Amino acid sequence: MIGLWCVLSTLWFMQDAVPHLQKGSSVVIISSIAGYNPPPSLAMYGVTKTALLGLTKVSTSLAIVPSKEYKPPLPSFFLF
Q1: CA atoms within 13 A on the CB side of 22
Q2: Whether 45 is catalytic
Q3: What is the pTM of this model?
């Protein structure tokens, strides 16, 4: 249920922010590398991050956010 709120709160933020964006503005949605390849132990986390990636892609393709780029930051971790 927490993952759903994560996605919905991002959507609500975008709905509130978009009318105030000026030309050249951007909305940055931070997802995770787990959105592309979620480990089984983090299935729900991966689903919510995949949803954020989809939200980013759809918002740029429908011109909801005035940006021509689809480059969501994908933080990851490294094991040394």
Answers
A1: 0
A2: yes
A3: 0.70
